[in-house]
Amino acid sequence: MMKQVNFNGTTLPAIGIGTWHMGDSPQTYTQEKATILYGLQHGATVIDTAEMYGEGNAEKLVGDVLQNFDRSKVFLISKFYPQNATKDKMKQALNRSLKRLKTDYLDLYLLHWRGPVPLAETVAGLVELQKAGKIRYWGVSNFDTADLKELYAQPQGDQVFANEDLYNLANRGIEYDLLPWQRRHQLPLIAYAPIDQGDSRGQKLTKNSTIQQIAQAHQVTPMQILLAWTIQAKDIMAIPQTSNVDHMKQNILVGGIDLSNQEMQQIDSQFSAPVFKQPLQMI
């Protein structure tokens, strides 16, 4: 049974579908399409994409998938470049994304990362798109605590729906101040790269003996334990990317894994939480 998260009154699956590096190759296109469709059919009904991914190729792939699934049952997320964060350029970027996605609205539209456009103008543009019915919600990505504080100081800035950041067992820096700040403001987190490809900065996460022992106890793979760790909190959604149906099946099954307090403590002893502020990690 897939875990659910409550994003400001909207109930969503704890595991969605990331699409970075997808849609670029004709050789893998059919397999990628089948993988995303399998995920949708089995409860992973959040798709995360961006105009940056393959300069629109990922959005085109998702658009093709959506022809075979009820659009109203999908929570569709896309992102726009910082250079498109002015009112006019944002509107144009959104229209291009919608055309590629073969839909007339997004559920969530995110500023991909901060750029030179003042946040006040970006927020005003997003609110206009929301009022026009082109997007249901808006949010941000790759924002640190200071960025969010600045955002909340803008008119209607506190209407932000979610922040999407890098978060996994090898990259826990946001736990020091960003995640607590978001929780105080009831701002949910979307975790990208939630299993860090199983390897980060020389740390072979899946080879760790504690991870392997816990995986064995649950009769799952070490990769599934890494993903399960990421979504143990009730306010975090993970969007792992895979182009493989078997991996998609494994990702979805993670929604039924509950790690005990003891297991979480064992993992903590191997991969400790931050004890000081760290720069926001991005990939």
TrEMBL record:
The lineage of its organism: Bacteria, Bacillati, Bacillota, Bacilli, Lactobacillales. GO terms for molecular function: oxidoreductase activity. CDD domains: AKR_YeaE (cd19138). It comes from Pediococcus ethanolidurans. Coiled coil: none annotated. SUPFAM superfamilies: NAD(P)-linked oxidoreductase. The record marks 79 as: Lowers pKa of active site Tyr. It comes from the Bacteria. Substrate binds at residue 112. PANTHER family: ALDEHYDE REDUCTASE, OXIDOREDUCTASE, ALDO/KETO REDUCTASE FAMILY PROTEIN. Residues 14-269 form the NADP-dependent oxidoreductase domain. The active site is at 53 (proton donor). This is Aldo keto reductase. InterPro entries: AKR, NAD(P)_OxRdtase_dom_sf, NADP_OxRdtase_dom.
